Amino acid sequence: AVEAQAVRASANELTFDNLVVGESNRVAATVARRIAQGDGAPSKTVYFYGRHGVGKTHLLQAIQAEMEASQDSRTAVYMSAEEFMVAFVEGVKRRDTSDLKARLRSADVLLIDDLQAIAGMGGTQKEFFSNIRAVAARGGQVVITADESPSELGSLNARVREELQGGATIEVSEPDEEMRRRIVRVKADGIAAEHPAFHLDDACVDLIVRRVRGPGRQLYGAVCNVFTATTFVENPVTLEDVEAAVRRQLGDQKPPSIDQVKRAVMTVFDVTKTDLESARRSRSIAYPRQIAMYLCRKMTTRSLPQIGRYFGNRD
What we know:
With 315 residues, the chain is an alpha/beta fold. It has 15 helices and 5 strands.
């Protein structure tokens, strides 16, 4: 019974045991595990970035879970940037931010999630900067996640950007097809540990992987939807049920946004958003930019002048 409880707990928690590792996140996962085990990191400040849903939060919470499970003498503090902002604003209203400072600066490993939530907020960023500097200055480790790299995160305070760029910046990209299949299997196995009747055969897994093109979080959601519509209500799992669950999750297919087209082109041609919007005319930049503009015209509802504005205010 104790073993069964442990399996259920690990299936529901975000740990290294249920983190699927592939080429898209191998470096980030290795660095995160070394931090959790106290084996050192490439820098006192480590910055993981990537699209929403690729597993950045999983990495942070896995570090905390690993430290707690091993009864590490170090203190880990996890906080989202939004929670930091709320706590700071409340402290300012009380004219006392000492509780927030004490909590953060007591950390040996400070884990801050979704930094983009405070981009553009001058006072909040200033307080954030002073706290991460204080942790690093006394030998602590700071690990931060965001949707974009420091150079591309808009409205980021210059001192904060320089601090982050001076540390280790590691991208977590989207999983390839084989990794996506493993993600579905891990989620299904986690549910099956508590509900043994739940099983996805290869055809069901292939359907989910083929239809759900989003990151790992969307794949998790698809498996949960299948479970809810079948085993949870004591119905068998059929391919038709999987198809229906995926359709409910995705809804009607909508045209992509310009940002989605940009991301696809950035991935295929290995260029940055700054490259696509720049005035550079070298073929290595101009050709991907032309492809992106062409796809925006063909696949979105935007007009040519609108598309031009999204690519560096071109006509």
